[in-house]
Amino acid sequence: MSSSELIGHAEVLTGLWTAAAAGRLPHALLFHGPRGVGKFQAAVRLARGLLCDGGPGPPCGSCGACARLRAGTLADLHLLDPEDEGLETIPIWRVTPRHDHPGVTTVEEFLSLRAREGGWRVVCLRDFDRAHAAAQNALLKTLEEPGEATLLVLESSRPGQLLETIRSRCVAVRLEAVGVAETADLLEAAGVASGDAACLGRWSGGAPGRAHELLREGALEMQPLLAEVLRGTVEPLQAAARLAEVRGDFSGGTDAARARARTRAAVVLALELARDLLRLEHGVEATTLAHGSTLEGWAGVGGARVARTVDALLQARQDVEANLSPPGILDRTALALAESSTAARPVTGWAPR
Ligand SMILES: [Zn+2]
After folding, report:
1. Cβ contact 333:237 at 8 Å
2. Contact 291, 245 (CB under 8 A)
C-alpha cells in the first residue's frame, strides 16, 4: 500500500479540480495544517488529477498518464520531498540552477520547459518551511511569473516559517485532521484489517499521514509492547531488545540509518503514550485519548513520576538526533516507561533509579 492511497480531503480536492476545469485555479497554493494529516499526499493527488487524461478530476488510475505517474515516468510532475530524501533543509540549488551543483533538475528549470504531454506542469514541494531564506527568495521569481497551465503546491505544517513574500503569493488552503473514523475507513479500504485500522486511526488522532507512518514503522507491534512495560508484565530491558527486532519499513539507505529510524519511531510512540498518561493524571477522560483504550484501568502513579518519564523520553528523543547508540536509547526508553509502571513492585532485574 502506498501512502498516496491514504488521503481523505475529498471535498477540498474536488473544489480545486472544479476550479481548474473552469480555468480559475491559482498558480500557487499553500497546503497548510497540522503535521501528519496528509497534506503532501493531497497535493500529489491534486497533481495526479490534473495530469490524468480524463482530468481535472479524481485520477482514474488506468489511463496512460496515470500509469506513467505510478511508474514515476511522467515528465510533467516534479516532486521535492525532503522527508523522503533525508534532507534536513531545502538548499537553493534545488530551486534555481547553481554552477556548483550541475545536473540537478531545479524547480525553475522544470517550470521553464513546455509540458511534455501538452497539459499541466505541476510542482509539489513538501515541508517548504525547511527551505533556506535564499531558497525561498529564489522561488519568488517563479511564483511571480509561473507560466501557463502550471501549478506550484507548497506544503507546510509551519507556515509561519515561510517568508511573508512567499505566503502572500500563494492561495492558502488549510487541511485539517480528517477524523479517527474516516482515517480507519481509509486504512481498511487500503487493505488493513479492521481491528488494526481502528487502532491506527485512534493512535494517529485522525491524521491519515501519521496513521500510515505508524503502520509502516511497526507501531502495531511496538505499542502493545510498550503497554506491557507500563503494566509491568515484561522486564523493561527485555522489551527494549524486542523493540530492536520490530519489523517495519524504516527509511534510510543503511542499516544504521534504519536502526535509527526504528529507534525514533519507538521513542516517539513511547512519548505519545506517556503524554496520555500525564493527561490521565490531570483528570482527562481516557475515552478522549489517542491511547485511552490501552490505558483504561491504569491506576495513577502520581504526576511527578509520569513527568519524570516524559522528561527521560524527551531526552531519548534528543539522543536519537544526536546519533547515540540505538540499543542504549531503547533501553532508556523502556526504563523511562517502567518508571510510570503500575506494577506493585519493580519487576525482577530492574533497579529503580
Ligand atoms: Zn487517468
Report:
1. no
2. no
Q: How far is the CA of 34 from the centre of ligand 1 (A)?
A: 30
Residues 71-126 have pLDDT tens digits of 888 889 999 998 778 788 899 999 999 989 888 889 998 988 776 666 899 999 99
Q: Which amino acid is at 114?
A: R
ipTM: 0.99
Instruction: Tell me the C-alpha to C-alpha distance, in Å, between residue 177 and each of 9, 145, 303.
Output: 9, 33, 29
Strand 171-174, strand 28-32: pairing: parallel
Beta strands in the chain (DSSP E): 28-32, 77-80, 121-125, 150-156, 171-174
- What's the distance, CA 279 to chain centroid? 24
Question: At CA 237, angle to CA 231 and CA 241, rounded to 5?
Answer: 110
DSSP state of 212: H
Q: How far is the CA of 235 from the centre of ligand 1 (A)?
A: 53
How would you classify the pairing of strands 171-174 and 150-156? unpaired
Residues around ion ligand 1, judged by CB within 5 A, are: 52, 60, 63, 66
Burial string for 175-188 (b: 16+ CB within 10 Å, else e) reads bebbebebbbbbbb
Please tell me the distance between residue 48's alpha carbon and the centre of ligand 1 in angstroms.
8
Tell me, in angstroms, the distance from the centre of ligand 1 to residue 18's CA.
16
Strands 28-32 and 121-125: unpaired
CA of 76 to the centre of ligand 1 (A): 14
State which amino acid sits at residue 147: G
Segment 126-163, tens digit of pLDDT: 999 999 999 999 999 889 887 788 999 999 999 999 99
